[in-house]
Amino acid sequence: MTVTAILPVPTTLVSRREAVFSPVAGQSSLARIVRSLAPVADVIVAAAAPLLDEVKKSLAQQGLSATRVCVADDPGARRDCISAALRVPGVADQVLLHDIAWPLVSPATLDRVVAALRAGSVAALPVCPVTDSIKAVNSNGAVTATVERTPLRTVQYPRGFDAAVLTRLITHGPGIDELDAVLTSGVSVTSVDGDTDTMAVELPRDASYLAAVIECRSDGSDR
Question: If exposure means fewest CB atoms within 10 Å of the residue's CB, which of 33, 69, 74, 84 is most exposed?
């Protein structure tokens, strides 16, 4: 493999274990994401210490015991997970970052992000055009204008980075979010087409909806 995929499981999920481990259409978000990323990348799951044993057990139960798992630095925030994963021996020069709240991974989007990295991009983000009407409102909640949506995009996962650039951003960048860090760093960011069927979900609240999307996906895949 020439790409490493990092899946953070931060300490914020200790009180929301269902988001990681609850099965939807036969697989947990954890297993679904790992299986989706594995065809193109060597996957590392970086878990906060309170979740480490449960992550390993869950992966083993779902036939994924070969997946590499590392423990996050304290206190186990997303940034700490990413930092720990980047120090695992053998991490590739190009990495993908995913998020447990995005259990559906579009194979086509994944391929486009990887292709952008291999073509020389140091940061690659899958995006989709904003199609809803966007309105500006004042402090009283009254609509004051229609916002031009042509240049607006929503950002999805997975996100691709040059490993050295990501290490620098995570270590020295502002905040704890890699997207905020890259956008304020001056690093050139490449956008690629995302997938309108891919979205963030909140489990278990959205379990039925997610199962329906999986069932109806036009490509016939549960990825």
Answer: 74
| Burial class of residue 222, CB neighbours in 10 A (0-12, 13-18, 19+) | middle
Q: Which tokens go with 83?
A: 């930092």
Q: Is the pLDDT of residue 1 over 70?
A: no
Q: How many CB atoms lie within 10 A of CB 171?
A: 11
The C-alpha atoms of residue 54 and residue 45 are separated, in whole angstroms, by 12
CA distances (Å), 213 to each of 20, 98, 218, in order?
Answer: 18, 20, 9
Distance between CA atoms of residues 179 and 158, nearest Å: 11
pLDDT in tens, 72-107: 999 999 999 999 999 999 999 999 999 999 999 999
Q: Which is nearest to 17 in space by CA: 61, 63, 48, 60?
A: 48
Q: Are 55 and 30 in contact (CB under 8 A)?
A: yes
pTM, rounded to two decimals: 0.91
From CA 91, how far away is CA 71, in angstroms rounded? 15
Q: How far apart are the first and last CA of the chain?
A: 20
Q: Distance (Å, rounded) from C-alpha 130 to C-alpha 55?
A: 35
